[in-house]
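The methods section describes the discrete structure representation at length, but only in general terms. An entry of this sort, consisting of the sequence and the corresponding backbone structure tokens, reads as follows.
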Amino acid sequence: MNTLLAILTFLGTFAIMEFMAWFIHKYIMHGVLWVLHKDHHQKDHDSWFERNDAFFLFFASLSMFFLMFAKEYFWLATPIGLGILAYGIAYFVVHDIFIHQRFKWLRNIDNAYARGVRRAHKIHHKHLGKEKGENFGMLVVPKKYFK
């Protein structure tokens, strides 16, 4: 029973992170912390790193907190921490590697879903300002982008 609960907690955490990524992106990154996210839309530097990468540190710290400290007091902290970590890895692969190609991997993937993901994200990036911070989730892309 504990194993099933741990698996469901891991999967639930991963799913909740998709919502949290959308919410934080729309209301925080394109809101009060635009100063950190702005360089992701408007390249104003020559560095490979972006101020936007600071958001990674927050989520990595949250995952480490659950994996290292909270498990002493709450046994489900481990699957929660692993769910956050798994989402972070998936987000990095899809967003930074696949879409923005910060590493030159996964460049030759070409199918309807891949084109839809790239097209939806490109439409988001056409807005260079703080407004219109709406972005679709990493895994759910409306059918209108599949052409």
The radius of gyration is 17 Å.
